[in-house]
Amino acid sequence: MKGIISSIIAGVFISLQGVFNSRMSEELSEWHTTALVHLVGFIFSIIIYLFVRDGRAEGFQEVPILYLLGGMLGVVIVLGEMIAINQIGMSFAIVTILIAQLICAFIIDTRGLFGMIKMKVSIQQVIGMAMMLMGVVIFKL
Predict the structure, then answer these.
(1) Which 3-state string (H, E, C) describes the chain?
(2) Tens digits of per-residue pLDDT, 63-72?
(3) In Å, what is the CA distance from 129 to each residue of 92, 98, 135?
(4) Which of 127, 116, 31 lies closest to 79, judged by CA?
(5) Residue 94 burial (CB count, 10 A)
(6) What is the value of pTM for the model shown?
(7) Which of 1, 23, 66, 127 is least crowded, fewest Cβ atoms below 10 Å from its Cβ?
(8) Cα 77 from chain centroid (whole Å)
């Protein structure tokens, strides 16, 4: 249940962040907005870390370097989302982002990439993916 609630909260916040960032980029630029968003996020993360203090600092030595690039992926995500919202609108941007995210996650799960447990593909999943893709086409018509 905690995972579902966390997913719902994350989904709502992704939409809110997209709107806020898109509006901010109208006053600044996309790159200024991206830098500012990540700076504020970094400061917020440090403040929370000071109170929570979870994990171990030694863990940095055990994390594969590839996974440390997640912050750079965040820059691409924020920038891409802002541009998409400004160009094609909030709803279609989010639908397209979610479909791309779902397809990528499906590939990672079914192939067991990046140390994930390899999942079998069911006919229901294939039908579900096809229905979602058709939903995007219908949504855009």
Answers:
(1) CHHHHHHHHHHHHHHHHHHHHHHHHHHCCHHHHHHHHHHHHHHHHHHHHHHHCCCCHHHHHCCCHHHHHHHHHHHHHHHHHHHHHHHHCHHHHHHHHHHHHHHHHHHHHHHCHHHCCCCCCCHHHHHHHHHHHHHHHHHHC
(2) 888 888 888 8
(3) 17, 11, 10
(4) 31
(5) 19
(6) 0.75
(7) 1
(8) 7
pLDDT digits (tens, 9 = 90+) for 55-113: 676 777 788 888 888 888 889 999 999 999 999 998 888 888 988 988 898 899 899 99
In 3D, which of 85, 79, 98 has the Cα closest to residue 33? 79
End-to-end CA distance of the chain: 36
Distance CA 96, CA 43 (A): 30
Tokens of 8: 């719902």
b/e per residue 11-44 (b: at least 16 CB within 10 A): eeeebebbeebbebbeeeebeebbeebeeeeeee
